[in-house]
């Protein structure tokens, strides 16, 4: 999606937007530290899980230019594995989330290996089809609990001492996971590895001609993205104490696309802003008689037609123009 | 009782017929997708929603207006095509020249809107639609019992698929279409109205989906979500066949439908995923698809 993604401008401008980026990142951390004083912690935790999920997805679409339409497979797998580890194996919550990330990453290697054989629209269709296959497996596999899902997942004691059933303890745990994930993504995007990813996005044949093994880079990026999506899913299953088929449906894949598109593809804060908008909307609409999918679909259409850069992308664009 | 590999032949033929019927829908839908993709370079995610709309139009026409099946078979695709014209002219047109992924996202949003509205109005449960009196009942072929309507679905879809192939590959209009697919600027310079061709192509492609919807109404229940689950399978069919060839889309559709039917006989647990497994194998062995020409 080269048309919208934000590439580095002239040197001076870039420093400007980098300062701005650091400033807003620090602001976000402070905000998240203070927020649970005034806002329902479960809402904030849901927001962070979806923001992390979308940020992981954004690594592919925003920085490699690959639109995965099957990211729910990794999110859902992470949720199932973490829930199973917590409920049946009684493992430490952190280990449960790590296992969720590992499961997501492992599935990511398999799906990614097949999907990167094609580009563009085909890539999207392949990821969608393979995630639907994962959905059917989850529907039939014995350990996922079929239509019921895995219910009553215990949050457990972190390191055997911190009781995560206390809302603030759980909030702190999710906040640390969220910040870890976002920091990891920020480091990746701004590393030499991230530069090569952007080079592939901008002009793949040139990256190949420069001697980069493009397929390998794509697969690594896909795996990291899938692992972080799995981590987000794992955290989500502990927060809601539930892993269900909803986490793994194509509707969930569509939702993460929308969150990222709305917030701003290829921006660090876009997925967070997008998640804030979508999660808030869904919370409000849940109480009303208005069909949520219609509104989500309409937002999709409006985004694609009117502001393809997304909220954060438009703001950055305006700032760059002024600078 | 005769058996083949331990399965009674009657059950085998029964599943083969179901496979052939599923294949008919895969073929009609992937054909429409391929036609649209060739011209607009857009994967029409709304295809499943428009298929559902075709079925609902037939059901509404019968229950509210008393319009019978045969009239619906003509009118519903036209209604869907008209909606297609509106979609193309008001939204898709504005994405020309952008990354084709935006077309996918836009049509995905449209399908959510359409399906969401029908779910809001009619709920998730299916509505029954009985086949027309002329096609009710069945015949005993000696080796199996064939419900007449199911036989009709296979025949109708083969005829329509062949007609579409004929129009595109053997008529003057089809020649314009193929030329405009290769080089729109040049065809435009020859004085052919390319934007009109594009609109017609989209309308024609979605009309096929609407037609498939009417055919499907008496077989599956008419429900708002009937299209969205089908369309993902059709995407896999399209990846397997490759969208380069019209005939390829048709043949792959029937082939995978039959394969799915056979899986239901021999290993029912895998029948939901067999097409995705085939897709994975094709990607490993022949990434461009069975009939694809590469990218």
TrEMBL record, chain A:
Q: Where in the cell is it found?
A: Cell membrane
Quick one: a GO cellular component term?
Answer: plasma membrane
Organism expressing this protein natively: Alsobacter soli
Q: What name does this protein carry?
A: Branched-chain amino acid ABC transporter permease
**Keyword flag Disulfide bond:** no
Q: Which domain of life is it from?
A: Bacteria
- Presence of the UniProt keyword Transmembrane in the record: yes
Membrane topology, as annotated:
Multi-pass membrane protein
Q: What is its main location?
A: membrane
Its keywords, alphabetically, are: Cell membrane, Membrane, Transmembrane, Transmembrane helix
From TrEMBL, chain B:
Q: Which GO terms describe its cellular component?
A: plasma membrane
The protein's location, in the record's own words, is:
Cell membrane
* GO aspect biological process, one term: amino acid transport
For this UniProt entry, the molecular function terms from Gene Ontology, in alphabetical order, are: transmembrane transporter activity
Can you tell which superkingdom this protein's organism belongs to?
Answer: Bacteria
* Pfam assignment, any one: BPD_transp_2
- InterPro entries, A to Z: ABC_transp_permease, BCAA_transport_permease
User: Keywords, A to Z?
Assistant: Amino-acid transport, Cell membrane, Membrane, Transmembrane, Transmembrane helix, Transport
Give the membrane topology, semicolon-separated if more than one: Multi-pass membrane protein
Q: Could you list the residue ranges that cross the membrane?
A: 12-35, 42-61, 67-88, 100-122, 142-168, 200-220, 232-254, 266-285
Protein family according to the UniProt entry: Belongs to the binding-protein-dependent transport system permease family. LivHM subfamily.
Q: What is this protein called?
A: Branched-chain amino acid ABC transporter permease
Instruction: Tell me which species this is from.
Output: Alsobacter soli
């Amino acid at each position: 999606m080269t048309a919208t993604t934000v590439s580095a401008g002239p040197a001076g401008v870039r420093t400007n937007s980098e300062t701005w980026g650091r400033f807003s990142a620090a602001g976000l951390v402070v905000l998240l530290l203070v927020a649970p004083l005034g806002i329902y912690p479960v809402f904030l935790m849901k927001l962070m899980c979806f923001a992390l999920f979308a940020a992981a997805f954004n690594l592919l679409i925003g920085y490699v230019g690959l639109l995965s339409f099957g990211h729910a497979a990794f999110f859902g797998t992470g949720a199932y594995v973490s829930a199973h580890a917590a409920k049946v194996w009684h493992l430490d919550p952190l280990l449960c989330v790590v296992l969720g990330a590992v499961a997501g990453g492992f599935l990511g290697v398999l799906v990614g290996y097949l999907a990167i054989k094609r580009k563009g629209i085909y890539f999207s269709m392949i990821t969608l089809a393979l995630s639907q296959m994962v959905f059917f497996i989850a529907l039939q596999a014995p350990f996922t609990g079929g239509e019921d899902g895995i219910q009553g997942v215990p949050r457990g004691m972190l390191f055997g001492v911190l009781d995560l059933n206390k809302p603030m303890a759980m909030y702190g745990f999710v906040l640390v996971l969220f910040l870890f994930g976002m920091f990891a993504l920020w480091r990746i995007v701004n590393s030499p590895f991230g530069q090569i990813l952007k080079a592939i996005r901008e002009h793949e044949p040139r990256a190949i001609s420069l001697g980069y093994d493009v397929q390998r880079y794509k697969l690594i990026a896909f795996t990291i993205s899938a692992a972080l999506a799995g981590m987000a899913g794992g955290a989500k299953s502990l927060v809601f104490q539930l892993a269900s088929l909803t986490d793994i449906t194509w509707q969930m894949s569509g939702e993460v696309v929308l969150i990222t598109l709305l917030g701003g593809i290829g921006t660090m804060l876009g997925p967070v802003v997008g998640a804030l908008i979508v999660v808030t909307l869904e919370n409000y609409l849940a109480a009303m008689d208005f069909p949520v999918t219609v509104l989500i679909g309409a937002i999709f259409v409006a985004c694609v037609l009117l502001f393809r850069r997304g909220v954060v992308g438009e703001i950055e664009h305006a700032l760059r123009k002024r600078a | 009782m005769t058996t083949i590999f331990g399965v009674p032949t009657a059950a085998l033929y029964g599943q083969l017929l179901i496979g052939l019927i599923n294949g008919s829908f895969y073929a009609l839908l992937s054909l429409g997708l391929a036609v649209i993709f060739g011209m607009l370079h857009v994967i029409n995610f709304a295809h499943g929603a428009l298929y559902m709309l075709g079925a609902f139009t037939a059901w509404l026409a019968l229950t509210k207006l008393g319009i019978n099946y045969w009239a619906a078979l003509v009118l519903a695709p036209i209604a869907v095509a008209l909606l297609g014209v509106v979609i193309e002219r008001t939204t898709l047109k504005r994405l020309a020249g952008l990354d084709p992924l935006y077309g996918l996202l836009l049509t995905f949003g449209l399908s959510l809107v359409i399906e969401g509205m029908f779910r809001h109005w009619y709920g998730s449960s299916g509505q029954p639609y009985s086949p027309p009196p002329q096609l009710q009942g069945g015949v005993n072929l000696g080796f199996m019992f064939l419900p007449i309507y199911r036989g009709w679905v296979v025949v109708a879809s083969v005829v329509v698929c062949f007609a579409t192939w004929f129009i595109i590959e053997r008529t003057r209009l089809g020649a314009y279409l193929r030329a405009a697919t290769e080089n729109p600027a040049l065809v435009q310079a020859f004085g052919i109205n390319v934007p009109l061709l594009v609109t017609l192509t989209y309308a024609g492609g979605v009309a096929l989906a609407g037609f498939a919807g009417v055919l499907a109404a008496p077989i599956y229940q008419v429900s708002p979500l009937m299209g969205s689950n089908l369309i993902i399978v059709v995407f896999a069919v399209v990846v397997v066949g490759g969208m380069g060839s019209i005939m390829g889309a048709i043949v792959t559709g029937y082939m995978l439908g039959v394969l799915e039917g056979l899986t239901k006989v021999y290993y029912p647990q895998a029948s939901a995923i067999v097409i995705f497994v085939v897709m994975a194998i094709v990607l490993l062995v022949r990434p461009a698809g069975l009939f694809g020409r590469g990218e």
